[in-house]
Amino acid sequence: MMKAGRYTYxxxxxxxxGARLRALGVAETxxxxxxxxxxxxxxxxxxxxxxxxxxxxxxxxxxxxxxxEEAIYxxxxxxxxxxxxxxxxxxxxxxx
Length: 96
Hints:
Layout: E1 6-7, H1 17-23, E2 34-38, E3 51-54, E4 72-73, H2 78-81, E5 84-89
Parallel strand pairs: 2-5
Antiparallel strand pairs: 1-4, 3-5
């Protein structure tokens, strides 16, 4: 779930669920967007331990590019996209 921005595609049809729920009258205080990061350690390997970070404070002012290389259109700061970001570890690749 994202609060704002559009992941990968710059199209109004890619409106994030957080924005759609607010448009339906759900209060922002009733929503929490959690951004899960799996794969290699985020922030170019700086964040190597499992854990979560609140984006309500100074961390929310960091540029999105510190954690995400893919384009997120319409947002530039981490706190615009999520309330919390978490790195549970490297993840497991799905078999196809």
